[in-house]
Design brief:
four-stranded mixed β-sheet; Immunoglobulin-like; 1 helix; four-stranded antiparallel β-sheet; single chain; 13% helix
């Protein structure tokens, strides 16, 4: 977890430098640490049956040639598995999720808006997984 945070902070610094942010979150136009969040957050739920564990769910987000794997994010919400991807990267994403025993889930055209420091807000997708027949 600590390694991820170090990489994530480095990514924000790089994005702010490229986007010409002042780097001082207290000044107008500065990138704040809060801008470091996944562009896409996926809550994986079973359409019916038992709850789904995030440890077995996997997937990806795609925006053109850019692809990022969905990874578990800290904690769950009411027992719902949460996965995230594309940290601080605006775009239009196609989201895919797989889980053993369930049909693959796909949602295309998920738009994440951005500004000079990255994304303005994470977009949440609920992946309602249908059992395999």
């Amino acid at each position: 977890m600590q390694s991820f945070l170090v990489r994530a902070c480095a990514l924000v610094a790089a994005v702010c430098a490229v986007a010409a942010c002042s780097g001082d979150a207290t000044q107008p136009g500065g990138c704040s640490p809060e801008s470091l969040r996944p562009a896409i957050v996926v809550h994986v739920v079973a359409a019916s049956g038992p709850a789904i564990s995030d440890t077995l769910s996997k997937g990806a987000v795609r925006d053109g040639d850019y692809i990022d794997s969905l990874r578990p994010i800290q904690g769950t919400v009411g027992g719902i598995a949460s996965l995230g991807a594309a940290v601080n990267r605006p775009g239009t994403y196609d989201v895919t999720v797989e889980h053993p025993g369930y049909e693959p889930f796909e949602k295309d055209g998920v738009v994440v808006h951005g500004d000079s420091c990255g994304i303005t807000q994470s977009v949440t997708v609920v992946a309602s997984m249908q059992p395999q027949r």
